[in-house]
Task: structure prediction
Amino acid sequence: MISDALGDARPFLDEVRNGFFITSAVKTAWHAEMDVLKEVDRVCRKYNIQYFADWGSLLAAVRHGGYIPWDDDLDICMKRRDYELFIRHSDELPEEYFLSTYKNSPDHWFYITRVQNEKNVSFDSEYLKKNYYFPYIACVDIFILDNIYRDDEKEKARDKKIMYILALADGIRKKTISDASAEKILKALSLEYGFSYTCPDSDEKRSCLAADLYGLAESFFSAAGDDESDNVGYIFPWTLKGSRGYPKKWFENAVRLPYEDMTIPVPHAYTDVLAAKYGQYMVPYHVWGGHDYPFFERQRENIEKITGLSAKIKFNKEMLRDRSGCDKLSQASGESRSLKSMARQCMEEIKSLFLFINDSTAECAENIQTLAIELGELIEKSGGEDNDVVHALEELCEAVYQYAVNHRNYDALSDVLKKASDIVSEKIIKRRETLFLITRPDRLDVMRELMETEKKRDGTVVTVVFLPFSLKGNEAGDVTGFHIPGYKNISYKDYRPNLHYPAVIYIQDLYDDWNGSITVPNEYYSAVLKASCEKMVYVLPDDISDFSDEDTSSLYSIGEIARSPGLLRSDRIIVGTENIRKHLIDSLTDLSGLKYKKHWEDAVTVFKIPETEEKDSYNKNKTLICLGLDTVEKSDCDISRLAGYISLYNAVSGDYKVWLYPDDIREWENYDRDATLFIKETFKGKLLKNELEGYDKYKAIADDFHEYRGDPSPVAYMMKESGKNVILRGDMK
Result:
């Protein structure tokens, strides 16, 4: 399996999801955030604290089964009582965790509690090891749902009171209100609400007083009792701006949906919540202003300002291969140390010695044998025994020995030498080799096409080496179980790039040692490889979607690709479309300067896999019916109503399968055992099972069907993206 080959490093590898390139750094940030979520989840489960995925994280769970590819934060919400219970038990979170609020953090003037894995950015070795060498603060944001008054006048009165207090707090900390005016209002608040205060005489005390006033305002958030409310909402800022929230019944129960490598609770009426928040929530928007992407970039910039050290690789012209001057000398030097060059020198010396074999038989014979043995050992060291060449050299050694002992049959010895010379020339000296370093066996389509192109060139041998990633500090293992037929497959432990000195090396790895979490064996870093070949080619994933200049998340990702050693050192860069080529050239030019734009225009090329009739391999008469737990909720767990919903699918013709989302049957049984039993009986023999996990599972299912009907899920989104027919339940009649 691909996951076996990628091993423990897989969660941290860059990835393309839904056409978006997710950098390895962002994947590592996700992992650090997920650890925080798991700790929050552990405490909530222990004390039966109800929480829900919220905002983008709710959308992500329903539409993607994990993070939205172009997003990187985690949002949850709790109703006020659950939140207060969580705060009481927050001391059971890991001791290094920090709950950031307006009460204890500067510039945190909003009502969100941020559960952080550390108070500050940390480069402590133990911290780094524990957090995948991600030094930045990872967190989960908690939004609080409060009751909204049923009586609109009461709600308006509360909102006015809250805004009045917050305006005073902001005026005091920003010094936009005079001390005299502030003290007058503070006295009134003290008389009306028993608010205790001290007039501030410093910026620090102003900030403390503002935080106390924020606390006073928050005390009114929970003023509406359960019997006075039908809705819940976020008082700050949405209710204060006129929103009247969402029906409380939508948040009565939770169901758990897949989210990366765990499940996350969502409101049982999750489709209603999403429709209220986003409208057409199955339509993606890459361009939005919710927060910075990625969230840790500002932290990184602050560290650079403080330390003066860059956390990103800088361009320098030494990375480029100069076809003149010193680089030519360096390349010639590298080639002179190659097996090809040494084999040529060795055979020339053997032929020279052979001319004098009759004059000094024993000495010449011994020297010829020594050279032949050394060449044979060098061939074996370079990446496995080449049987024809080694056997020819062994025959030469034996023939020389026999001639030295018996001193006869010079012509036969000449024939053996010619045979060895011809084989060495054909198999080593004249052979053109191209090396494909496969670090991503999940990205072989373009590489296979390039292999076939190289294989068709006369005298070219295509060598394939699977190269493992490993977590920093761990020893790299071997990649087993992968072999590409028709090519020479060699273990990375046996291959010596500097000895082979291939004409071209094709690579997939970007980062060398600049990735904080993962690495490849350092003998395969791009600087080493570049010195060991005539040309190095980086192959970018071909499934990155085109994007606009307004898509800042995609622009960031392409910029990070440009700012990577493997790509900067490559002589040629292969991309999938003209749009990606343009944006990559722009990013590389921004990084290196306008002087090098022509270089990048020449280096970055588009390579497309030829279209074939077999491209659409799915069954064109196969429909996927998806039932979400939302279907059970909509029927109020009434079997007759549930049967009515299911009858909408009776019009499906041809072959079909039924997929439950979530597909963990225990979640369904926990929610409603009778409804689950009814569904299992109704669709007996038709329920789809897939043993893959996460994104791989959704993609495999989406690829296998031509039509989708039913409730929203990650598969619906993928099938719609690929142009297949998707009919969601709300659109069915």
